[in-house]
Design a protein that fits this description.
The structure is a single chain. 22% of the residues lie in helices and 28% in strands. With 248 residues, it is an alpha/beta fold. The strands form 2 sheets. It has a 7-stranded mixed sheet. The chain has a 6-stranded mixed sheet with strand order 7-8-9-10-11-12. Strand 8 and strand 9 (153-159) form a beta hairpin. The longest helix is centred in the middle third of the chain and has 11 residues, at 97-107. It is globular and about 55 Å long. 47% of the residues are buried.
């Protein structure tokens, strides 16, 4: 049985859109999953996320899941891998293989100048879609393809065999995709005031959420705090949400 200090929670690190950090200074959208006091997974490492980790977590988690290659989700990855390896710390980086291929070819190209292979900087984990990937002995993640302009994957996280949290990542409004996410009782969705072919808008998400009142739903990726939705529940940097309590 699980001890009381192994409850599962998530910490919001940022809610920024693509230009939010560059023009306004707030970190890009990212969360960290925590078991008890231990952070076990960082989800995305875009602009400003490392500083947010240091502020809200005190450290960068050992394992990073990258949902896709856009800068507001992966920009700080090469710098962090080089800096942490220089401090004799090896991080684990997980990505769906199609995402990983793009990251290695483009995002991490600058590491080639060191003359060292990627294996010198991190342990790389390919996480195929629809397979359960064990983050810890208790927590696992199953990636799901989002509707986006390039390969992008949200996920359902499992506490043992029980769905506990879904994270949509960047995606256009897609009921079929949302149906897969909403098997979890807790759901984080990306949305903004005005949607497009790769990002959902508040109204489309609100319509789907209204038909699923049993799920707790939070909105991220909306940009600055003043751009947060009024008729949905936004999360804000520093928010900590408890998903399950450890059993004695």
């Amino acid at each position: 049985m699980h001890s009381q200090d192994t409850g599962l929670s998530f910490v919001c690190l940022g809610t920024g859109r693509g230009a939010t950090t560059v023009y306004s200074g707030e970190p890009s959208s990212a969360i960290a999953l925590r078991m008890g006091a231990r952070c076990v997974l960082l989800v995305d490492i875009g602009f400003g996320v490392v500083r947010a980790c240091r502020q809200w977590l005190g450290e960068i988690p050992d394992t990073i899941l990258v949902t896709h290659n856009h800068s507001d989700h992966a920009a700080e990855l090469p710098v962090v891998l080089a800096a942490e390896a220089g401090a004799s710390r090896r991080l684990r980086v997980a990505a769906e293989p199609r995402v990983g291929s793009v990251l290695k070819q483009h995002r991490l190209h600058e590491l080639n100048s060191t003359g060292e292979p990627l294996a010198a900087f991190c342990d790389w984990i390919d996480t195929p879609a629809d397979d359960r990937w064990p983050v810890t002995s208790r927590l696992s993640v199953r990636l799901l393809r989002a509707r986006h302009s390039e390969p992008c994957f949200g996920f359902v996280a499992y506490d043992d065999a029980r769905p506990i949290l879904a994270y949509g990542g960047d995606s256009a409004a897609d009921p079929g995709y949302y149906d897969q996410l909403f098997v979890a009782p807790n759901v984080i969705l990306d949305a903004r005031a005005t949607g497009n072919d790769e990002h959902a808008d508040f109204d489309a998400v609100a319509e789907y959420v209204a038909a699923h009142p049993a799920n707790r739903v939070w909105i991220t990726g909306y940009g600055r705090a003043d751009q947060a939705p009024e008729d949905l529940t936004p999360i804000f940097p520093g928010d900590v949400v408890t998903l399950s309590q450890g059993a004695s």
